[in-house]
Amino acid sequence: MPEASPTTELLRALAAVLGRLGARWYVFGAQAVLVWGRPRLTADVDVTTFLDPEEPEELAAALSEAGFELRVSNAADFV
């Protein structure tokens, strides 16, 4: 079996965290376009989550604990 790409590994890790939180989410942007067979050369992964109840601090803490680097200092102010 071929080795998974860095993007695939990132999405697996993200899916694990969001699954534990019960968050609904989807991928959009260039990575989503790749699924449809139209390559775009970007390195970012765009994801939207719906949290119920809306607790961005819990999501930020879970992502940080899983090794994701957060680019904002206060999740509540960002959302």
Give an overview of the whole structure.
- With 79 residues, the protein is an alpha+beta fold.
- It has helices at 6-21, 30-35, 56-65, 75-78; strands spanning 24-28, 46-50.
- The chain is globular.
- The termini are far apart.
Class of secondary structure makeup: alpha+beta
Helix content: 40-55%
Mean pLDDT across the residues is 82
Strand order of the largest sheet: 1-2
Shape assignment: globular
Q: CA-to-CA gap between the ends?
A: 39 Å
**How big is the Rg?**
14 Å
Low-confidence stretches: none
Please tally the helical runs, counting DSSP H or I stretches of 4 or more residues.
4
Task: Please report which band the strand proportion falls in: under 5%, 5-15%, 15-25%, 25-35%, 35-45% or over 45%.
Answer: 5-15%
Strand and helix order: HEHEHH
Q: What is the number of strand segments?
A: 2
Task: Summarize the main sheet.
Answer: 2 strands, antiparallel
Write the layout of secondary structure elements.
Layout lengths: L5 H16 L2 E5 L1 H6 L10 E5 L5 H10 L9 H4 L1
Antiparallel strand pairs: 1-2
Give a summary of the structure in a few sentences.
46% of the residues lie in helices and 13% in strands. It has 4 helices and 2 strands; from the N terminus they run αβαβαα.
Keywords:
79 residues; alpha+beta; two-stranded antiparallel ribbon; 4 helices; globular
